[in-house]
Design goal:
This protein is of the alpha/beta class. It has two domains: 115 residues, Urease, subunit C, domain 1 (Roll); 287 residues, Metal-dependent hydrolases (TIM Barrel, Alpha-Beta Barrel). Helix content is 37%, strand content 23%. Strands 1, 2, 3, 4, 5, 14, 15, 16 and 17 form a nine-stranded mixed β-sheet that branches. β15 and β16 form a beta hairpin. The chain binds zinc ion (ZN). The site of zinc ion has 6 residues, from loops.
Length: 441
């Protein structure tokens, strides 16, 4: 499950370390032992490779695995349904989930999406959905690192027939995966508009009791902002603050509609923020004020959101969009430069999940979550600036290898821990069921 009990010697690449000095080693090597990075630097200073498995990067970029801080991976089964429909969430998505989501669907759709994530260089993801134990089983099989939030809502859910039944589900899920080397269970109150005050406050204290993170959509919707303003005269961020949810445990997705005072509250509480620029653009929801967050040193990472919202799990596309959307919104080419965007996808994501001590950069002592990006394709040449090539040129098809916790999940573009044909077959049957069922929705 955790790192293989062996040594890796990853060499002949440009190491983009994302360490505090942001060092880049042009002829670099990374040495790994038992899933932990032991050496990062120029190859000339590397320890002996004796007894180690040698991995040739063929002159490519050796980077930290990418971190997707917000998604709902099992929704890949609904990908391309109702993409451009108004009020899609309540009219379409919730009824679809009530009707079709089962343990089987969640497991196979999760594996399918994990296949996509592995091929795109993602090593850690933060998920919120139903039947999160099945997502955990899929992640465990694939060998991915994951923070997995069981969704809590005020209506019957696919895995919990009573409103707020996710709370009971979470307890057994958390007990089962407590102390797991790759899986961190967490609580996921869906949003301020799908839970009441009492249950949101209860979740804040449960998170303390179980010592787990909390992830939630926050300040995402226009109607969320106007309803809370009318009912309490509060912003969504003020509302969560009053209920005790604004703590270092919180990973807040979106944070689009925030005031300067809200940004101070998020900063003082040391919350994590998951910025989802592609999903937000596609839904026409507005632009999260990320440059302002960064000016306050907030913990900001990037997310794809679910496959119905962001459509793909392509973190490189998201990173590129994160650099561009703020330039467009601020009409300023210098905003969110490539080096900053790549930080958001790596060490920033680790900070948003409060996991920066163990992942997010290539440094001795950290877990060995490492991707190798090939520079062979025409769009990847020449390289005057490694951050620019990673953010403005690279796509998931350029990811050659991926290691998580020292275990190789992708070798020369082929996944090693999952069976894509079997997944596609199983998911194909499930999708046919959905297609038939849609006719009577
Ligand atoms: Zn979401």
């Amino acid at each position: 499950m955790s790192g293989d009990n062996k040594k890796l010697y990853i060499t002949n690449g440009h190491v983009v370390s994302m360490n505090p000095k942001r060092e880049i080693f042009t002829n670099g090597t990374v040495c790994v032992e038992n899933g932990v990075i032991r050496y990062v630097g120029e190859s000339s200073g590397a320890p002996s490779s004796e007894g180690a498995e040698r991995v040739d990067a063929y002159g490519g970029l050796i980077i930290p695995g990418l971190i997707n801080t917000h998604t709902h991976i099992s929704m890949s089964v609904f990908r391309t349904l109702a993409d451009d429909m108004a009020d899609r969430l309540k009219r379409y998505l919730f009824p679809l989930e009530a009707r079709f989501v089962t343990q089987d669907l969640v497991y196979w759709a999760a594996l399918h999406t994990l296949h996509e994530m592995i091929r795109g260089g993602t090593s850690t993801f933060a998920d919120m959905y139903y039947f999160e134990e099945q997502v955990a089983e899929a992640a465990e099989q694939a060998g991915m690192r994951a923070v997995l939030g069981e969704t809590v809502v005020n209506f019957p859910a696919p895995d919990a027939p009573e409103p707020y039944g996710g709370l009971g589900y979470f307890k057994s899920f958390a007990r089962r995966f407590q102390g797991h080397p790759l899986i961190t269970p967490c609580l996921a109150p869906h949003a301020p508009y799908t839970l009441d005050d009492e249950h949101l406050a209860q979740i804040a204290s449960m998170a303390d009791e179980f010592d787990v993170p909390v992830m939630s959509h926050l300040a995402e919707m226009d109607f969320e902002v106007s309803a809370l303003a009318e009912k309490y005269g509060e912003t969504p961020v003020q509302y969560y603050h009053r209920l005790g949810l604004l703590t270092p445990r919180l990973i807040a997705a979106h944070c689009i509609h925030v005031t300067p005072e809200d940004i101070d509250l998020l900063s003082d509480a040391d919350c994590g923020i998951a910025h989802n620029p592609i999903a937000n653009m596609k839904a026409g929801k507005g632009t999260s004020p990320v440059p302002e967050f960064l000016a306050k040193q907030l913990r900001v990472g990037l997310g794809t959101d679910g496959p119905m919202s962001g459509n793909t799990m392509d973190m490189m596309h998201v990173t590129s969009a994160a650099a561009k959307v703020h330039k467009m919104a601020g009409r300023d080419r210098t905003l969110v430069p490539a080096s900053t965007a790549f930080e958001l996808a790596t060490i920033g994501g680790a900070r948003a999940l409060h996991m920066e001590d163990s992942i997010g950069s290539l440094e001795p002592g950290k877990r060995a979550d490492i991707a190798i990006v090939s520079l062979d394709a025409p769009h990847m040449f020449p390289v005057f600036d490694p951050y620019a090539v990673l953010v403005y040129c690279a796509g998931p098809q350029d990811v050659r290898d991926l290691f998580v916790d020292g275990r190789r999940l992708l070798r020369d573009y082929s996944p090693l821990t999952i069976d894509p044909l079997e997944i596609r077959k199983q998911l194909g049957n499930i999708v046919e069921g959905v297609r038939t069922g849609l006719k009577s929705l």
